[in-house]
Design goal:
Length: 247
């Protein structure tokens, strides 16, 4: 039964390292992925579902580790740095242009608070009290301080997350959702000394359309196992393979 599928596959790609974070661009139907290797190398990949190809795949930057994925918008990959290797505090901004595969601009004095359609809302951490200003996404130039009555358009994702179905025995915990006429769930199967986590998709006649292994030989529960986005099922297999099916 496992690995049987009658859904249309859209993406199956093994990445280098463990998938750490995913961000989405609804307008361009693109997905960005941050992955990290055991040798402390952070890599970035961006898949275009419209063109059915990776724009970049396992792409490294000069800074090998202290970079993180912030947003993806209008073919711009927006990254942040970290205070140091052991602190999650963000600093600096790097904007990578996916069209020409070059760094558009960097800012070493400001920290991004959020990304909007109008630009990047940021502040200089060395100046107190903090004053939020808008940075142009294309150039990095300041567009002025944020006014008290200013309104900005958020980057929104049409993403559907599963509900957690708790159980007295934690290994009976499941994640599930209903999308259109499909029932999607992830659950655990007991092995001799460990558990296997699987994902299943059923139609309204209760026929199985997909069954796949998410993680094998696991000792603890996994979070955020799958999501539905713009009519696509997306999940991570064995921590480093990104998979998507059309629903």
């Amino acid at each position: 039964m496992l690995n049987k599928d009658t859904l249309k596959p859209l993406l199956k790609q093994q990445l280098e390292g463990i998938i750490w974070k995913i961000v989405l661009d609804d307008e361009l139907n693109c997905m960005a992925i941050e992955s990290r290797t055991l040798t402390k190398q952070v890599l970035f990949s961006v898949y275009d579902f419209n063109q059915q190809c990776f724009i970049i795949l396992n792409y490294p930057f000069e800074e090998k580790w202290q970079l993180g994925l912030l947003a993806l918008y209008q073919h711009k990959l927006i990254l942040h740095g970290f205070e140091n290797e052991f602190a999650p505090t963000q600093k600096n901004i790097l904007v990578f242009n996916l069209i020409d595969k070059n760094i558009g601009w960097q800012n070493y004095s400001h920290t991004a608070q959020a990304v909007y359609k109008e630009g990047i809302l940021a502040y200089n951490a060395k100046i107190m009290p903090r004053k939020l200003e808008l940075l142009d996404l294309n150039t990095g130039k300041s567009l002025g301080l944020l006014k008290a009555d200013g309104t900005l358009q958020q980057l929104q994702n049409q993403i559907i997350l599963p509900e957690h179905q708790l159980a007295e025995n934690i290994w009976d915990t499941a994640q599930q959702l209903i999308y259109k006429d499909l029932f999607i769930r992830s659950l655990y199967l007991k092995n001799k000394d460990s558990y296997t986590q699987i994902i299943e998709v059923y139609n309204k006649e209760n026929n199985i359309l997909l069954s796949d292994i998410l993680n094998d030989n696991i000792q603890k529960l996994a979070e955020d196992t799958f999501f539905v986005w713009l009519g696509k099922l997306v999940y991570i297999r064995n921590k480093s393979e990104i998979v998507s099916y059309l629903l």
